[in-house]
Design goal:
heterodimer, A: 220 residues, alpha/beta, Rossmann fold, eight-stranded mixed beta sheet, 7 helices, globular, B: alpha/beta, two-stranded antiparallel ribbon
Chain lengths: 220, 314
């Protein structure tokens, strides 16, 4: 073990706040279910975020309200609604807004759907937000669902990511147990979380400090 | 029951910051919940987790069997005082692999939790490991020994680990995460007050806490005095937190009434201090045996439990 790793091990990390992105897709359901399980397991508060997809038609009667209503419906359909879930709507370039939101919320984890609707820059969000990003992916050969947890390469971030991976797995094991056999825990046939390190690129630190336009609404 | 001012007791509660959470496991599936609970609790308070397992002289296979159905050969195996050095080493290696697999499949391979496996008697060996770890909490899985011809009780391992001078979290299979509905069985002892403050720290920030005191029927005349003390402790629990604390006074048998109340509200956890047997003083390094109320709560609760030892035992 290196000195940096030893140092990282001594840093306590706690999970108080989580940000989850929901997009109305089945993959978004999985992301919300995972956030819900983590919230139940750890008591962490959850901020749900959605965004107006590129090219979303803003015509017709009350389009934003209709969009928000559909995502709110997904939120209520998927989760146990324990606690108060606030839904944030982003518009425009979401990368920097997400980073600002995670910072404002003091989030320790960002959960995103693996549907591809969020674009290809998911892994890079760990660089801009500074926290691990859990991407809930679809079926694999052995798992019905799997999470790719992106993290920065430094020792502290990796320690943080492993800490989060443990909590994510525990939450998933618990929720699966209660969904299938309420009286006992069933071990999974595969490893639910895969941690992937994202190399640092100076360009992202520049981007993280730039501002952008945003449209922020709140719904309960 | 020796009453102590709540403030004085709180000031003597050790600072747990930076101290690890310890998990005891024998690799059995019933300990899976202990690992899951430890992951959540660590996430709540920001602690590292360490695991330990003790391989005793006999293999777990024999210990877990119903002795009434054991063959003469198995009974003779049980009576052997100890295993050979090589056999013990094999058992330790086997246990270590089993625990590592349990960790990987329950909380994931990313959980880089240090695992300590030692051979020896559970009582002495666990005491050494607990003392050396300076842990803030010991987490174990719930193991209830239900037999049709006896009262419900706890397994041998639980009984032994309960004697450690460290708060113990017994994770039940009904675990759904960190506690949100909390029952504190308050007997006004220092251990009880310590348990109350400990569970508040380990519970959800918006948890509902029921501070329950059961007045024996022959002490009903002290009702008002006890109500006042209960409300005082309730106020100290609310300080600096968002938890909702509701003092509840019940009349009757402490264990039975507390269990009934906890069942009625669907509690996630019952918390209490270790009640003591009055005429059995502590024998260093072991704290005294558990009293009846604590034993009954542990043996009959269907939810998780948190037991705090007396502050002077720590």
């Amino acid at each position: 073990m290196t000195d940096a790793e030893k140092l990282a091990q001594d840093i306590p990390v706690s999970l108080q706040h989580v940000v989850v992105m929901c997009d109305g897709t089945p993959s978004g359901d999985s992301a919300l279910r995972l956030a819900d399980a983590i919230s139940q397991g750890t008591g962490a508060s959850v901020r749900a975020v959605t965004w107006l997809p590129v090219g979303y038609a803003l015509d017709g009667e009350a389009p934003i309200e209709k969009f928000l209503a559909s995502v709110t419906q997904q939120l209520y359909r998927t989760t146990t609604r324990i606690g108060f879930w606030r839904l944030e709507l982003l518009a425009g370039r979401i990368d920097q807004q997400l980073a600002q939101l995670c910072s404002l919320e003091m989030a320790a984890l960002l959960i995103v759907p693996g549907s591809g609707s969020v674009g290809s820059s998911v892994s890079q969000w760990t660089l801009t937000t500074g926290i691990p990003v859990a991407c809930v992916a679809g079926k694999t050969a052995r798992c019905a669902e799997q999470v790719i947890l992106y993290t920065r390469a430094d020792a502290r971030s990796q320690h943080h990511a492993h800490f989060m991976a443990t909590i994510i797995t525990a939450a998933h094991t618990m929720s699966m147990a209660h969904r299938t056999f309420p009286d006992r825990y069933t071990k999974r046939p595969c490893h639910y979380v895969q941690v992937q390190v994202v190399p640092m690129e100076p360009a992202y630190f520049v981007a993280a400090h730039s501002s952008s336009n945003n449209l922020s609404l709140t719904a309960s | 029951m020796e009453p102590q001012p709540a403030d004085e007791t709180v000031s003597r509660i050790p600072d747990d910051a930076g101290r690890p959470i310890l998990v005891a496991t024998d690799g059995h599936p019933r300990a899976d919940t202990a690992l899951i609970a430890a992951a959540f609790l660590a996430g709540r308070v920001g602690a590292n987790v360490q695991l330990f397992s003790v391989v005793e002289g006999s293999t777990p296979t024999y210990l877990e069997r119903d002795k009434t159905s054991a063959s003469p050969h198995e009974i003779s195996e049980l009576r052997k005082p100890c295993r050979t050095h090589e056999q013990m080493r094999e058992d330790i290696d086997l246990r270590r692999a089993g625990v590592a697999t349990q960790v990987a499949l329950t909380v994931g391979e990313a959980a880089d939790w240090p695992i300590t496996v030692r051979g020896g008697p559970l009582d002495q060996t666990s005491e050494e490991i607990v003392t050396r770890s300076h842990a803030q909490l010991l987490v174990i899985g719930q193991c209830l020994a239900h037999r049709f011809d006896t009262q419900p009780g706890t397994c041998h391992g639980t009984h032994v680990l309960m004697r450690r001078a460290i708060p113990i979290y017994i994770a039940a299979p009904t675990l759904r995460g960190i506690p949100r509905r909390v029952v504190i069985a308050m007997d006004f002892s220092m251990a009880g007050i310590r348990a109350a403050h400990l569970v508040r720290r380990l519970s959800a920030v918006d948890a509902s806490v029921y501070l329950v005191h059961v007045v024996p029927k022959d002490s009903a005349h002290e009702l008002e005095e006890r109500r006042r003390r209960l409300q005082g402790i309730g106020r100290s629990l609310c300080e600096g937190s968002d938890v909702h604390v509701e003092p509840i006074l019940l009349l009757g048998d402490a264990a039975r009434e507390t269990l009934g109340f906890a069942h009625g509200i669907g509690a996630d956890i019952i918390t209490c201090g270790t009640s003591r047997l009055p005429f059995l003083p502590s024998t260093y390094p072991y704290p005294p045996l558990l009293g009846r109320v604590t034993r009954d709560l542990i043996g009959q609760a269907s939810c998780s439990m948190l037991i705090a030892p007396h502050v002077s035992d720590v």
